[in-house]
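tool=predict chain=A
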Amino acid sequence: MDWRCGSAGRAVYDWLSKHPHIDASRSVIWSVSMGTFFGLQAAAALGDAIRGAAVSFVCHEPGLTSLMNRSAPSFKMRFMYMSGHDDEAEFDRFMEKFSLIPIADGIKCPVLIQAGEDDELSPLEFSDELAGKIRTPKKLVIYEGERHAIGGNNLSSALGENWFTMLADWCLDRIDGRPAPNERVFINSIGQAVAEPYAR
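tool=predict ok
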């Protein structure tokens, strides 16, 4: 199994492009959890063919160490099965190749990343590092006190901007051709959003 899904993303895009009711020129990617890893790979492969890539509940740690070795064992067992591995040591070596950093500067579309400050499956520092490597306009949104699945764990998501509404609005703005923001946003426990622009 090849861990890179750029070719799969291209195949899906090409298939959808042939559908008579789909305008592929107005498409965006949205992916959740493990999809935040593979969705950004697809975005890099598709270049400027898509209007944007939005990812929520992040899995951006190189090697996915926290997800595979510090969380429920069922995560690792399922991924070993899906990738055709029955030897854990061999699987661990396979996982060492999992990193978005080498392809980050190949992403040509705007990006939205929504993360919990206390994500137990992918520490925030790795999404921060990834955002710093992406050269297109990107919006990294952090919800204070939230874990992997944003919503319900802290007042930041209850009192702040709803993550799904934000996502939908961001995607619609990309489809409509509005300029993409380039900022890191922190939503605190009383719902206040503080935005800091990225230098590039």
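The mean pLDDT is 93. The chain has eight helices and six strands.
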